[in-house]
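Feature request disguised as a bug: please show the residue count (422) next to Serine hydroxymethyltransferase in the output. Example input:
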Amino acid sequence: MSANHRHPALLATDPELASFVAAEESLQAETLRLIPSENYVSAAVLEASGTVLQNKYSEGYPGRRYYEGQQNIDRVEALAVERAKGLFGVDHANVQPYSGSPANLAVYLAFAKPGDTVMGMALPMGGHLTHGWGVSATGSWFRGVQYGVRPEDGRIDYDAVRALALAERPKIIFCGGTALPRTIDFAAFASIAEEAGSVLVADVAHIAGLIAGGAHPSPVGHVDVVSTTTHKTLRGPRGAMLMCREEHAKAIDKAVFPGLQGGPHNQTTAGIAVALHEAAQPAFTAYAHAVVANAKALAAALLERGFDLVSGGTDNHLILMDLTSRGVAGKVAAKALDRAGIVVNYNTVPFDPRKPFDPSGIRIGTPSLTSRGLTAEHMPVVADWISRAVDAAAKGDEPALAAVRREVADLMAAFPAPGLPL
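Example output, currently without the count:
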């Protein structure tokens, strides 16, 4: 479908911008997207996110708004909330946060004061900026202390986490991160947080879809608050949710509004509601398990081709690769892979001797390719493409990268992506 038919009003009003959108549609269709935080939303989510709900201001919460004319908006938000509560089995859900970082800021506002000690996984070890890392506002306004992983196996040392928590007594402990290829032991974190007298927050932005589909243990029942984005493995629009026990509901709601933001983005709330409905279907359970099966198969194929994987593999959707032994830096490899039609991001690996903007590793994941219908039988082919492209990057062999790109485009054509024009 051409941009002319897909976005006729946009094309007529702003052909320059319409051309950019059409180019992005083609790029997403033709390339193998391996960034673990990316996915394809369904056509239904895409439509819901672009409705006239965009036109309405709705400060407050359903039944308690500061603007009139909320008859339909209240129903939309209440539907999203009920679906979140049902899907994740939580007492309370807030679907208004604009994205993951603002959602985490709301957690700080609800439970801590500036200068308080907070604890999270160090960014270079796989944590997130908003878990108290120094360059983030959370590391500037609060006193951040960090835990990491063991150098010998790339896994969290829960005894070390406990010792740090008992020494520092943080107000908040975050578990979860952005480059963790292994299952998070929420029960172990809960025990540590209880002993240290800390509020425990699970940031499951990356694995929310896996949790919803039963392919990763749930933090619910172990933690005080669950923070998540609604995109990534959950296959919703770019938004976020905070879920918690009933005792924390008022504090969380007050922190989101009026604490940090004004009116919610109602069109995004609608997209979240659709995504949560889709995630409650049996097909999504199959999808979540397929994401993990594909990641395990891809990790095995990469190991067979001599790649070094942090922690030796994966339990979830994500693989972190250390390219030191391949003689090519992560940034160089990521850019070469991009030219080969394979979209990844360069990434720090634990104990990386290189700088964050020029690290040793790349981070890949299987949510997007699984959404297109690729299965474990395709993963050796994907691993072969990655191996060929990384070797070509080391040699500066552009024809080899072009050859991989043609092969990628051929396979992608056979597996159309949800929500994209054919």
